[in-house]
Design brief:
seven-stranded mixed β-sheet, three-stranded antiparallel β-sheet, mainly beta, globular
């Protein structure tokens, strides 16, 4: 009896099995700390330094200012990143500090827009406290990936 050879199939590389984001190691010389990356799923993200994000205006869907970006913190356990926002108050008095996951923001030109939330939901958030040191502050030169609109 003759045996026939079965056709060989090429293995699927691991990168094709899961989505990934390609990010540069550092911004190109002469840039302002901002680069664009595309994920394998086609979503676009903007790579910024924390300092560049802090310099942007934070607006709601109605284009009105909703607070000041004060920095970015990272959860020590799951490494999820959050934007620290100071909202309300007058001349620094009575302001409330809250955090939002980066995925709730979208970069559009040189401003950051609140995404998947409205101002009423922001007002209902608890004030951010890091008494238990569950978060670490990311320094100004740290690069973060923010969804781009």
């Amino acid at each position: 009896m003759a045996q026939t050879a079965s056709p060989e199939t090429a293995p699927i590389p691991p990168a094709a099995a899961s989505p990934a984001v390609t990010t540069p190691a550092s911004p190109a010389p002469g840039t302002t700390g901002s680069t664009t990356a595309t994920t394998m799923l086609g979503a676009t993200a903007r790579i910024l330094t924390v300092d560049a994000l802090e310099d942007m205006d934070l607006v709601g869907a109605d284009e009105k200012g909703i607070g000041d970006i004060e920095g970015v913190v990272e959860n020590n356990t799951d490494k999820k990143q959050f934007v620290v926002i100071e909202r309300g108050g007058f001349l620094g008095f009575g302001a409330k500090t809250i955090t939002l996951p980066l995925e709730n923001l979208a970069v559009q030109s040189e401003r950051v827009t609140l995404h998947n939330m409205d101002v009423a939901q922001l007002d209902g958030l608890a004030e951010f406290r890091n008494d238990s040191n569950a978060f670490r502050d990311l320094d100004d030169s740290h690069q973060i990936s923010v969804p781009q609109q």
